[in-house]
Amino acid sequence: MSALNSILIPGQPLVLPKGPTPKFGSGIYLKDGKARASLIGVPKNEGGTISLSQQRPHPPAPSSVVLGTITRLSPQQALISITVIDGIPLPHGEEFTGVIRSQDVRATEKDKVKLAECFRGGDVVRALVISLGDAKSYFLTTARNDLGVVFATSEAGATLEPISWLEMRCPKTGRIEKRKCAKPPDL
């Protein structure tokens, strides 16, 4: 993906194309000598003027990759507050609800899954929408290597570090906590 095709968020510096300095259109401002985005969108270069067109988020659809926070756990399912859809953050105060059922956590040994050993309240999870659920929520899965917990805090309040696909370690105490970890995209 080139620099001019990536989604920018407010305040993020804009990578300018080589050559003469372009003019700046709507959605871009200068701060400390750097061009920055003033809204969520994709930069466009038209006739030597770079502007930012606003990216409107769309509702989750099957095959959308979402990011959200675990809000509630039960033995059968985890509820997620979805805040990012296909890399596009939702406006503040707007969110969707997703459900990860115990059989949708991983691809193998589905009957042995214990949700309390995979997620905890407050964990940030990357998941895939598998279907539209009932009127209030979407069914999600984490049954791929790149899906699962991407950010979690330990009981001591430190950010957990993944050490395997099933465990994270607290850097403060050294204690190991169980999670269904997402494989980082660059590994």
Provide the descriptors you would attach to this structure in a database record:
mainly beta, five-stranded mixed beta barrel, 40% strand, 187 residues, single chain
Please describe what this structure looks like.
This protein is mainly beta and 187 residues long. It is 0% helix and 40% strand. The protein has no helices and 15 strands. The strands form four sheets. Strands 6-7-9-11-10 form a five-stranded mixed beta barrel. A three-stranded mixed sheet has the order 1-5-4, with no helix packed on it. A three-stranded antiparallel sheet has the order 13-14-15, with no helix packed on it. Strand 13 and strand 14 form a beta hairpin. The chain is elongated and about 60 Å long. The two termini are 18 Å apart. The mean pLDDT is 86.
